[in-house]
What we know:
Elements: H1 10-27, H2 29-48, H3 52-82, H4 88-127
Helix pairs in contact: 1-2, 2-3, 2-4, 3-4
Amino acid sequence: MRGRPRTHSWKNKFGYALRGLRRAFRTQTSFAVHLVIACVAVAAAAVFRVTAFEWVLLVAAIGMVLVAETFNTAIESLARAVDTQFHPRLRDALDIASAAVLLAAVTAVVIGMCIFIPALYRFFHRIL
């Protein structure tokens, strides 16, 4: 690939990955929204003192959504680089990538509900 050194040190590889994360965050509002929601979920988990197993589920759900969103962003970027005109196959690829994000987000919401509804119940039960 032009513009990159032929030897890829681990430092360079991490640099490319961090550049990709910055690019996704700056160019994709969905990525930024998911990241903010993830921070809120982590803060809520800390406040409600969820179990270690619930932490594992929460981190996996957050990771799943962010990974799906990152792949979606990569596919969008590649599709736009390949052709700027409408093409049904590119549209299908973009729609399928978006569907993956939707499935990941819905799964994360269900996991979040399984964690936070009982946590809220315990919290309010202690107060009242």
